[in-house]
């Protein structure tokens, strides 16, 4: 509800991870000084209007003054001519004098509207003086009510609010998914199935990319130094895993690769720097070897994921009749900490990913897919959704969320693709501004 708290919409705008954050102020959290602020805005507009009127008046007065100065010489000339005519009436040709007088008066006629404008401007000046007196009184009243130091206090409150919003933006991954952008194709390479990823936990300066082509029996992992190197296919090192992988649900978390060992339900943690397996553990009861894969098959029985809160495993067992199980996993020991039965059949799911403890499931891996189902582990509840999801290359075999970059990584029919996500937040606040 818009009345509950600050609403923050966030979405990544580019592959480099830059984000946009839009905050909407709650209705009930409006500032108590809104009335005074409104009055100040009205007074400011009046001051602007008066200033504009004064500028117009100044320009017009300057123009008219120039004209009056020009007509001054004409009037002196006419006065002198009349004096001469009065002193020498006998020698004056009446007809020529009449014509000369008529010409002089014609030159002076434009002075009449100028004088009328002067009269109007005089009335305007009186009105502006009255407006200025009213404004001065209103400003003094507001200043007395708000206090001499109120603006500094308000500025400090605004700075505190900005700090709070900045803190919120540091947790941009946490929120409810409301939209997925159009796909951004990074590269076209490899076979129809595979996976690629960046580390979900390392600092943003570490932009290494890992690439694993194929969905079973593979052992070769390529590590690219940067995303640009990945795009060009240059500057990479090769890791040869001691155990082959199954599926495409691998994830890199804090310098280690988590994957499903081929022909087993064993989870493996491989450390890249030491090039060794640190730990491996069986996921009790988890299906493998295409027992409970996603709809596209490919030995995708066990899918590892990482969100803002840590490491997860998504799989299913015979005991829960093939429905998706979501388990929190200890990244050090690979021990299952807690599990949730979502009730959603895994074979009906195209792919899935987790954002802030919520599992989102696509209804297909083919063209026309959409994000159809959401399971909330914090409340152990679910809902059916209808979030458009443009499956550009019509065959998704890997889909993972990266909380550090706030994007979805996808392997789509031999194309490595990312999607920006838009999340919705209601940030609870206490007190007024």
UniProtKB/TrEMBL annotation:
<feature type="disulfide bond">
    <location>
        <begin position="174"/>
        <end position="356"/>
    </location>
</feature>
<dbReference type="Pfam" id="PF02191">
    <property type="entry name" value="OLF"/>
</dbReference>
<dbReference type="Pfam" id="PF12308">
    <property type="entry name" value="Noelin-1"/>
</dbReference>
<keyword id="KW-0964">Secreted</keyword>
<keyword id="KW-0732">Signal</keyword>
<keyword id="KW-0175">Coiled coil</keyword>
<dbReference type="GO" id="GO:0045202">
    <property type="term" value="C:synapse"/>
</dbReference>
<dbReference type="InterPro" id="IPR022082">
    <property type="entry name" value="Noelin_dom"/>
</dbReference>
<dbReference type="InterPro" id="IPR050605">
    <property type="entry name" value="Olfactomedin-like_domain"/>
</dbReference>
<feature type="domain" description="Olfactomedin-like">
    <location>
        <begin position="173"/>
        <end position="425"/>
    </location>
</feature>
<dbReference type="GO" id="GO:0005615">
    <property type="term" value="C:extracellular space"/>
</dbReference>
<dbReference type="InterPro" id="IPR003112">
    <property type="entry name" value="Olfac-like_dom"/>
</dbReference>
<keyword id="KW-0770">Synapse</keyword>
<keyword id="KW-0325">Glycoprotein</keyword>
<protein>
    <submittedName>
        <fullName>NOE2 protein</fullName>
    </submittedName>
</protein>
<dbReference type="GO" id="GO:0007165">
    <property type="term" value="P:signal transduction"/>
</dbReference>
<feature type="coiled-coil region">
    <location>
        <begin position="125"/>
        <end position="171"/>
    </location>
</feature>
<keyword id="KW-1015">Disulfide bond</keyword>
């Amino acid at each position: 509800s818009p009345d509950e708290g600050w609403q923050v919409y966030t979405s990544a705008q580019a592959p480099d991870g830059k984000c946009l954050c839009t905050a909407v102020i709650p209705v009930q959290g409006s500032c108590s000084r809104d009335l005074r602020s409104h009055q100040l805005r009205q007074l400011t507009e009046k001051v602007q209007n008066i200033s504009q009127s004064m500028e117009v008046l100044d320009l017009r007065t300057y123009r008219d003054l120039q004209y009056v100065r020009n007509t001054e010489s004409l009037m002196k000339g006419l006065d002198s001519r009349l004096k001469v005519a009065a002193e020498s009436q006998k020698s004056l040709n009446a007809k020529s004098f009449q014509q000369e007088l008529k010409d002089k008066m014609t030159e002076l006629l434009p002075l009449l509207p100028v004088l009328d404008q002067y009269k109007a401007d005089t009335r305007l000046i009186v009105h502006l003086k009255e407006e200025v007196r009213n404004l001065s009184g209103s400003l003094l009243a507001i200043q007395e009510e708000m206090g001499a130091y109120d603006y500094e206090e308000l500025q400090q409150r605004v700075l505190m609010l900005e700090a709070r919003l900045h803190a919120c933006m540091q947790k941009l991954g946490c929120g409810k998914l409301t939209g997925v952008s159009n796909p951004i194709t990074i590269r076209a390479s490899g076979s129809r199935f595979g996976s690629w990823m960046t580390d979900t936990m390392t600092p943003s300066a570490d932009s290494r990319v890992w690439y694993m082509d194929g969905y079973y029996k593979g052992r070769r992992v390529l590590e690219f130094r940067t995303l640009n190197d990945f795009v060009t296919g240059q500057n990479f090192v090769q890791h040869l895993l001691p155990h082959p992988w199954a599926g495409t649900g691998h994830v890199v978390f804090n310098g280690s690769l988590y994957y499903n060992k081929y022909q087993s339900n064993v989870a493996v943690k491989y450390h890249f720097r030491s090039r060794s397996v640190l730990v491996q553990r069986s996921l009790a009861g988890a299906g493998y070897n295409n027992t409970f894969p996603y709809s596209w098959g490919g030995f995708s029985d066990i899918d590892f994921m990482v969100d803002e809160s840590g490491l997860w495993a998504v799989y299913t067992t015979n005991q829960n009749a093939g429905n998706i199980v979501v388990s929190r996993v200890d990244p050090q020991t690979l021990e299952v900490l807690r599990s949730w039965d979502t009730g959603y059949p895994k074979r009906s799911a195209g792919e899935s990913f987790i954002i802030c403890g919520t599992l989102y499931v696509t209804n297909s891996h083919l063209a026309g897919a959409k994000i159809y189902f959401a399971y909330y582990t914090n409340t152990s509840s679910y809902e059916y959704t209808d979030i458009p999801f443009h499956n550009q290359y019509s065959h998704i075999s890997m889909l993972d969320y990266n909380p550090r970059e706030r994007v979805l990584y996808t392997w789509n029919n031999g194309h490595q693709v990312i999607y920006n996500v838009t999340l919705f937040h209601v940030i609870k606040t206490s007190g007024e501004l």
